[in-house]
Amino acid sequence: MKRIVVLISGNGSNLQAVIDACQQKKINGTLCAVFSNKADAFGLERAREAGIRAHVLLPADYASREAFDRQLIAEIDACAPDLVVLAGYMRILSPAFVAHYAGRLLNIHPSLLPKYPGLYTHRQVLENGDEEHGTSVHFVTDELDGGPVILQAKVPVFDGDDETLITARVQHQEHAIYPLVISWFVDGRLAMRDNAAWLDGARLPPEGYAAED
Ligand code: GRF
To answer: Which domain, by its residues, includes 185?
Structure first.
């Protein structure tokens, strides 16, 4: 059974989707630990409720980002994970952290990358009058929200939408596509090579996998 570690900072609804998918055997893996950089992250409760070890590391206790990430690496590696999943982990990673987990580090970002890397994606979509929005699962590289995209889900933007509405619409899709991508990875179907994502031996296009109609 492949071993998965999840990093969170907040609500943990994506963590919950992964917990559920593991319990339902949609992901052929085991969640061995959850780490948060915030003591009050609700996702910690979700982990404990599911019987998963939940750890808090507070940045204020460390002299630098590098020192924090060194300790985080040590604690993550004690779980010997095959895959590290960022699920709403709102902290910039040091290059050493990214290099250490290269090819086995996933993130979900709430926009149709390469559009809107960084924060406040939902707000930007509304301000720009976009008709379409979505979310992207990607491998993590040193470029912020810039690693190879694996899978995207699109949602429409309707007249009268506000941030709450489109956030919920996007997250509904996230809870479907993140567990799916994780299942591909633990089944050995997904890899990062030559700064691209590969599924079943085929190089995915820049927008990630697209089902053939
Ligand atoms: C998600 O929308 C994800 O795209 C972004 O942060 C949010 C986390 O939500 N990276 P949750 O903590 O999983 O509910």
So the answer is: 2-203
DSSP assignment letter at 59: G
The H or E element containing residue 14 is helix 13-23
Does the pTM exceed 0.85? yes
Helix 163-186 and helix 13-23, axial crossing angle in degrees, nearest 10:
40
Question: What tens digit of pLDDT does each residue of 159-206 get?
Answer: 999 999 999 999 999 999 999 999 999 999 999 999 999 999 999 999
Residue 139's DSSP bridge partners are 106
**What is the 8-class DSSP label of residue 36?**
E
* Contact (Cβ atoms closer than 8 angstroms) between residue 157 and residue 133: yes
- CATH number of the domain where residue 169 is located: 3.40.50.170
Q: How far is the CA of 12 from the centre of ligand 1 (A)?
A: 7
* CA proximity to 108, closest of 129, 128, 132, 84: 84
Structure-derived torsion over alpha carbons of residues 94, 96, 98, 102, reported in degrees to the nearest 10: 180
Number of domains in the chain: 1
Residue holding tokens 């630098």? 64
Residues with C-beta less than 6 Å from any ligand 1 atom: 8, 10-15, 43, 87-88, 108-110, 135, 171, 174
17 within domain boundaries:
yes
